[in-house]
Design a protein that fits this description.
The complex is a heterodimer of chains A (392) and B (598).
Chain A: E1 6-10, H1 19-30, E2 34-37, H2 44-54, E3 58-62, H3 68-81, E4 88-92, H4 99-107, E5 112-114, H5 120-131, H6 144-160, H7 172-180, E6 195-200, H8 207-221, E7 227-233, E8 241-243, H9 245-248, E9 257-263, H10 275-283, E10 289-293, H11 303-306, E11 312-317, H12 324-328, H13 332-335, E12 338-341, H14 349-363, E13 368-371, H15 380-391
Helix pairs in contact in A: 2-3, 3-4, 6-10, 8-15
Chain B: H1 3-27, H2 29-44, E1 48-50, E2 56-58, H3 68-77, H4 99-108, E3 126-127, H5 132-142, E4 149-154, H6 157-160, H7 184-190, E5 201-206, H8 211-226, E6 236-238, H9 242-249, H10 256-273, E7 277-278, E8 280-283, H11 285-289, H12 294-314, H13 319-322, E9 326-332, H14 341-355, H15 361-364, E10 368-372, H16 384-398, E11 403-405, H17 418-434, H18 449-471, H19 475-480, H20 483-500, H21 529-563, H22 568-577, H23 580-591
Parallel strand pairs in B: 3-4, 4-5, 5-6, 6-7, 8-9, 9-10, 10-11
Antiparallel strand pairs in B: 1-2
Helix pairs in contact in B: 1-2, 1-3, 1-14, 2-3, 5-7, 7-8, 8-22, 12-14, 12-18, 14-18, 16-17, 21-22, 21-23
The chains are: A alpha/beta (392), B alpha/beta (598).
The structure holds cobalamin.
């Protein structure tokens, strides 16, 4: 089977009309499309950066507050400048985009404009027909990020077809390319270069927010450093997925952050079949840190350990995990080097801290327990976690 | 139990109380007689009016009941217009023609030159375009024939998001869809020529995320022009509704908690220093337009309102001081729920405010502005939108809204053009002045069995929503969990699916569609680049001139925020010398940026 179609959707800067795109996202994922949603009030550069890193087939823009002719054209212009004009652009904006506007927009390179009154079915059909073919001939990548993004797609595609991408194991060319890149890394911890940090934990624990806050601290601390994030959202084989983490990560919209969103595509345990190879590639790619985020707390999250790539595993917990009994079932508590109780401003947090502490003490593994409130600006708990991660 | 849980209980208890009164009226003879006496008294005092054809009608219509139990049910359960729990209306007469006019009309009847009373056109047209001076010109044009000047201001995108016109990537958005405001100097230009301290002037500003900063700029501009004494005289409204931004409109700029704190700082200031100002407009419109069901709209709006009341009271502001300065803004579409949505909302608000918050009479009133639904207006065969809006207007006035905005038929395409604005405004005049539906008799369309059925169903559904929010830990906790957002999104998705699978008839789109599509001539009011550049240049000049003072003012502001005190006074100082973006940026350094919810 071929990989699902990957599309990036967004609403332009100074525009918060997201109702149409939310509906369209839901409709796309119901029809097997993987949607990376970047959110509303998004700049041209954020959109293009995300599209290149995620290596999507196309960008769907929903624009209501005017200036659509210019905005769509700027996106296309920047894609061209970055050598990524294989990424197509389409969109809509209800009645605010007139038929005359659409003619100009198409002339400037927009694939299709959907007017008010178009059925949802028609849009889905368009995406399947227009972007469903696999992209065999890729343009020569113009940038490191673009090349990396293409390689990640190759890995995902290979796994979708049930093959293991052996070609990628031959890493000499890749390393040569890497060598040309300037790097800020002073101390390299392992042969691969990057420090790989795994974040796992149940949905709703606030992992994404926590990672984004750590990214902010990292960017401030290392003015030239680069960081990669591999994030996961659950999906079923042959179905779509909504990959929405990027939208909430305000600090990670930065040229020094390379982020890739993956759907698990049917694999249990919060990772995708392609994760291990993708992670290996990222670890080989001259980032100072590589962060991998996954959903899950049980046995399934073991790949972190098994593959030996992850240097440090962090389990992020929500204080509302339920009873002590529930806690006993969480295998990751024995495996993680760091356990974070996020949302520690919640009432149950003290109890949670005490219960988890007790459990960790039994392990006698010198694990760390940190309390954070990731949503709080400049949270001292997050500072502490950042120090732990950077110094270990 | 949070306050919202108590509100649920108070409404349930009130409904039980009403049933008890019904029973008592039937069993306790003295009480029954008293009620009957009062009822007859009320009826006897109702004046009679005459329609243009001479038909006599009562100025207030009451149900034809004479049994004490039913009288109790009506008086306690619904209330006469202007009486608790205000189901029928917040005030006694609302849209009725003043008695004086009827008399003069009757006296002149039969004479050749009958002078028809010339009422003003409905005012408060939402406007904002290009730069401050352009909007100012539009304001003067709109109010040229009016005694009272009620201006309603729309801001451009950068302003709504609290950023400056010189920010990265926003150049093309300057002055689009609203007016560009960066500094106090723009604010001076915006209302130039209007007497801000006059009792005949009021300004409404539709902005929420950066509302406290914009409010401070407005006050600073007023002081520049009229001196410090003008402050307590300022009249107007600022939207400032943070919860609905997070739930539906997506213009939040600080994290939720600091946003709420800055809002409370502002409310504390205006309640004390500007007693004529409405510092918040609790809005369901945007929730409805984002695609919620009508019940979700009412439930989220009311629960947001109660959460604000709890917050402001928690700050120590007396409920009877801020309560009367709260106002509401609801959507009115074509779904059956709208027959009674605002009526039920008014009743729940009054009961909750009285029973849970101990509010006095003036703070129990839900003062309502309604706007007809923009989303119900579609591009296909767009002239049908006139009919949709007309039907929605009838519904809005059946709910006894205190004021109403009717959308223009060209709504799907662009900021409305004058031709269609005029028709929209005239739609209201036709309904209220020309037709006899609302001008002769209060309660003309209240109290039908169908309306009562809707009321009961809607009230029960709203209380269910309250219970769910309560279960999630209250409004703030539910918001943080994306509860309202995800509910709205699912409802919006279902709504669009229903349109395209044909189960929700939309005339001209999925029924009776005519191949020939007509669209209005869309005149795009684009802001010329030269104007956008002018705004950027002005801003640069302002920043240069005030560079030194700005640093000092921002430091003081930041320190006040860090100390946790009411930062509004410092915001007032900063507004004199800093731009909107400078203030937003500095505040974000202290409290962080809003992390978008999707
Ligand atoms: C809903 C709405 C709102 C809601 C938005 C809620 C939300 N979270 O989305 C609220 C009330 C908050 C709102 C606010 C504002 N709004 Co508004 N809003 C609308 C409204 C009524 C409907 C838009 C809509 O969502 N329709 C439902 C969708 C599903 O259908 P559709 O639009 O027909 O789109 C179809 C296709 O085009 C296609 N499509 C759309 N996008 C995409 C993208 C892709 C990738 C694809 C494949 C297809 C596709 O899908 C749809 C199904 O067929 C329009 C007017 C109208 N009737 O269209 C004004 C309108 C868009 N708003 C307008 C304005 C000015 C504003 C404000 C700036 C007002 C102000 N100054 O405060 C604010 C700004 C808000 C912000 N944060 O940016 C103007 C824009 C004017 C212009 N461009 O010239 C309009 C046109 C109204 C008007 N005439 O003034 N608004």
């Amino acid at each position: 089977m071929a990989s699902p179609i990957r599309i990036l959707t967004a609403v332009p800067i100074c525009d918060g009309h997201d109702s149409a795109i939310n509906t369209i996202n839901l409709e796309f994922i119901r029809h097997g499309i993987e949607v990376i949603y970047l959110g509303y009030h998004r700049s041209v550069s954020d959109i293009v950066r995300a599209a290149i890193q995620e290596d999507v087939s196309a960008i769907g823009i929903s624009s209501y507050n005017g200036g659509h002719i210019e905005f769509f054209a700027e996106v296309i212009g920047l894609l061209r400048k970055k050598g990524a004009d294989d990424i197509k652009v389409f969109g809509g904006g209800g009645g605010t985009i007139t038929h005359d506007d659409a003619v100009i927009m198409k002339r400037k390179g927009v694939d299709e404009v959907f007017f008010a009154g178009t059925s949802l079915e028609e849009m889905v059909r368009f995406v399947h027909q227009r972007y469903g073919k696999s992209r065999t001939k890729r343009p020569r990548p113009k940038s490191f990020d673009q090349q990396l993004a293409h390689k990640l797609s190759e890995i995902e595609d290979a796994y979708a077809k049930g093959k293991r991408p052996t070609r990628l194991r031959d890493a000499t060319a890749w390393q040569a390319l890497n060598a040309q890149r300037p790097t800020s890394k002073k101390k390299i911890r392992n042969s691969r270069g990057a420090r790989v940090i795994g974040f796992t934990g149940p949905g709703g624990a606030g992992k994404t927010t926590l990672i984004d806050e750590l990214v902010l601290r990292f960017l401030n601390r290392s003015p030239k450093g680069r960081i990669a994030i591999l994030s996961h959202d659950p999906s079923v084989v042959g179905e779509g997925a909504l990959l929405g983490d990027r939208a909430t990560m305000i600090n990670s919209q930065d040229d020094r952050v390379f982020m890739r969103s993956m759907a698990t595509r049917g694999q249990a345990g919060g990772l995708s079949p392609a994760t291990q190879d993708c992670l290996a590639l990222l670890a080989d790619s001259n980032f100072d840190h590589v962060i991998i985020e996954t959903v899950g707390t049980g046995q399934e999250a073991m790949p972190f350990r098994k593959n030996g790539i992850v240097d440090l595993t962090t389990l992020v917990m929500n204080p509302d995990y339920g009873s002590r009994l529930q806690l006993q079932k969480i295998v990751m508590l024995d495996l993680a080097e760091i356990v974070v109780v996020n949302k520690s401003d919640l009432q149950r947090a003290r109890t949670a801290h005490a219960e988890i502490e007790q459990r960790l003490e039994q392990n006698r593994r010198n694990q760390h327990l940190v309390d954070t409130v990731a949503k709080r600006h400049r949270d001292p708990g997050v500072d502490q976690l950042f120090e732990l991660i950077s110094n270990r | 139990m949070s306050k919202l849980g108590q509100v649920v209980e108070s409404v349930e208890n009130y409904n039980k109380f009403v049933l008890d009164q019904v029973k008592r009226a039937r069993t306790d003879e003295k009480f029954g007689r008293e009620l009957l006496g009062r009822w007859n008294d009320v009826k006897a005092k109702i004046p009679t009016t005459r329609t243009p054809t001479g038909l006599p009608l009562p100025r207030l219509a009451l149900p034809e009941i004479d049994e004490p139990g039913e009288i109790a049910r009506y008086l306690f359960g619904e209330g006469l217009p202007g009486e608790f729990p205000y189901l029928n209306a917040a005030y006694r007469e609302m849209y009725l023609e003043p008695v004086r006019e009827i008399e003069s009309f009757e006296k002149n009847a039969g004479k050749a030159e009958t002078k028809i009373p010339q009422l003003e056109e409905p005012t408060r047209l939402f406007s904002g375009l290009m730069l401050a001076e352009d909007t100012n010109e539009r304001f003067h044009y709109l109010t040229r024939h009016q005694r009272t000047h009620r201006l309603s201001t729309a801001f451009d995108g950068p302003t709504l998001y609290g950023i400056d016109s010189d920010a990265d990537g926003v150049f093309g958005k300057i002055g689009e869809g609203g007016v560009a405001i960066d500094t106090v100097e723009d604010m001076v230009r915006l209302y130039d020529g209007f007497d801000l301290g006059s009792a005949n002037f009021s300004a409404s500003m539709t902005i929420s995320g950066p509302a406290p900063i914009i409010m401070a700029m407005y006050i600073a501009a007023a002081k520049r022009r009229f001196g410090p004494k003008v402050v307590p005289k300022l009249r107007g409204t600022i939207q400032a509704d943070i919860f609905k931004e997070v739930q539906a409109q997506n213009e939040t700029i600080f994290p939720i908690e600091p946003s709420l704190r800055f809002l409370t700082d502002m409310v504390e200031f205006t309640t004390h220093e500007m007693p004529r100002w409405y510092p918040i407009s609790i809005s369901g419109y945007h929730i409805g337009e984002a695609g919620s069901t009508p019940v979700q709209q009412a439930a989220y709006t009311l629960s947001n309102g109660f959460a604000y009341a709890e917050m402001f009271a928690g700050r120590g502001i007396p409920i009877d001081q801020f309560g009367p300065r709260l106002s509401f803004f609801l959507d009115c579409g074509l779904d059956a729920e709208y027959i009674a949505l605002a009526r039920v909302s008014r009743r729940i608000w009054a009961i909750g405010m009285r029973e849970v918050f101990g509010a006095g009479q003036r703070a129990q009133l839900l003062k309502l502005h309604t706007q007809t639904s923009g989303r119900s207006l579609i591009a296909a065969e767009f002239k049908n939108n006139l009919t949709r809006t007309a039907a929605e207007l009838v519904l809005a006035y059946m709910n006894a809204t205190n004021s109403c905005h009717s959308n223009s038929a060209d709504e799907p395409f662009t900021t409305p053009s004058e031709e269609w604005i005029r028709l929209a405004a005239h739609g209201q005049a036709i309904l209220l002045e020309e037709s006899g539906i609302f001008k002769h008799t209060m309660n003309m369309l209240s109290g039908s069995p169908g309306m009562k059925a809707v009321e009961r169903a809607v009230e029960a559904a709203i209380l269910d929503e309250f219970r769910e929010i309560e279960r999630l830990g209250g409004v703030l906790a539910a918001v943080e969990e994306r509860y309202q957002r995800s509910q709205i999104q699912n409802a919006a998705h279902r709504y669009e699916q229903q349109i395209y699978n044909g189960t929700r008839p939309i005339i001209g789109l999925n029924r009776y569609r005519d191949g020939d599509e007509e669209i209005p001539e869309v005149k795009l009011a684009r802001t010329p680049r030269s104007k956008q550049q002018l705004q950027v240049d002005r801003l640069a000049k302002f920043k240069k001139k005030n560079a030194e003072k700005a640093t000092g003012a921002l430091d003081k502001l930041a320190a006040a925020v860090e100390r946790g005190e009411n930062c509004f006074p410092m915001l007032l100082e900063a507004a004199e010398v800093c731009s909107l973006g400078q203030i937003t940026g500095r505040l974000q350094e202290v409290v962080g940026r809003f992390r978008p919810m999707v």
